């Protein structure tokens, strides 16, 4: 059954002249109205709920968990079996403490029992099939509600308001989007509806970065929305070249990779504004964002139910202790994620922030999700592998993958197939990755039986063998070596 494209996908698929004309016509319409009723309702709810009392939060979470548990028990074979195995029925959930009696699940649970975890027919129009690489190098595929984007964007923009962002503000974006070059060769596209200026993270040469900066300088008050590695590389370029940073950037919003303190310090020094980060994932279970008053992450209690568990599966309650983030989502009803072990780790700061008066779990040192492993293009420029992470069916027949590189401009995509894989499937993988590479990185596929794990049981996405002094400029060496060392030592801490 062919599904209708969402309004978001239709807009992004429209030719550039069509989007330009529509953007001109709709320019006077406030963006919250263009984003739709659901976005506006969720924004109002999130804005009100962020300062709820502890009692209000607990009651809301208990009600939502009861809904999720009842739905899963009623409509899925997997959860009915899992609950019965521990003698649990939905009516037994009388308090948040009772919830800990349920078993945890992980990505292997999804991989082995996805069909038995569905609450709806997967071909329905309001359900999407998505994929994520996660933190272990093993692609995860599942189904999720199609309307999730409006909900998540409401949470994101609400958190960005802590650094002055308002829906409708201009974004300068360096986040892996495939960009068609504009007239004159600038790697830039403009979305007139969203007011987003997209710059290519695949072409961060000195020449292009200088042009990016001059263009950003011309777009007025804006926010830089970037991968941490991209923001850091741009900052290092500006400092090295002596080009002043654009002063119209009000804050740097950095997401989708681990944020390292030295990178934050460098970006804030160069751009002379706040560096702000959020935590989330494709599974839509846990959302956390920094406070106005610190770099600690506040977990939103209405986005999903977050647990921090030690290695014995017990709740972490003492400030300073670390544990694994375990989430139960409130957004995805197509495939309920109940007590899902994310493989990400964090350190508990407190259960309340006195600085902002929010009764939120406060975390720091979140580690384990996407690391900043870099690839080297044929021209010597660097880009993060994160930009190649696909959310479609590219890796649907792949159990695990890794990119090996020992030559600038060339790399080997190592894959561990989930079953028999033929040349046609290999060609499809390369074909779907090609638009993001534009010939700057030549990929070949190597089928493997296994990919070696780190000492902490994880897989690095990039096995980078190019020496730091082999065609790398100073700032690229700093990112390449720093990211590799930090990730090797810090995964799972």
Provide a descriptive summary of the structure in words.
By secondary structure, the protein is an alpha/beta fold. Among the domains are: 36-163 and 304-363, ANL, N-terminal domain (Rossmann fold, 3-Layer(aba) Sandwich), CATH 3.40.50; 374-490, 2-Layer Sandwich (GMP Synthetase, Chain A, domain 3). The chain contains 14 helices and 20 strands. It has helices spanning 7-13, 16-26, 31-35, 37-49, 54-75, 77-85, 96-99, 107-113, 148-160, 206-217, 228-241, 261-271, 423-437, 474-490, and strands at residues 127-132, 140-145, 170-174, 188-191, 196-199, 222-226, 249-254, 274-279, 288-290, 297-299, 304-309, 322-329, 340-350, 362-367, 374-376, 382-384, 398-407, 410-417, 442-447, 462-464. The strands form four sheets. It has a twelve-stranded mixed beta sheet with strand order 4-5-3-6-7-8-9-10-14-13-12-11, sandwiched between helices. β9 (288-290) and β10 form a beta hairpin. α4 (37-49) packs across α9 (148-160), α5 (54-75) packs across α6 and α11 (228-241) packs across α12 (261-271). The model is unreliable at 469-493 (pLDDT under 50).
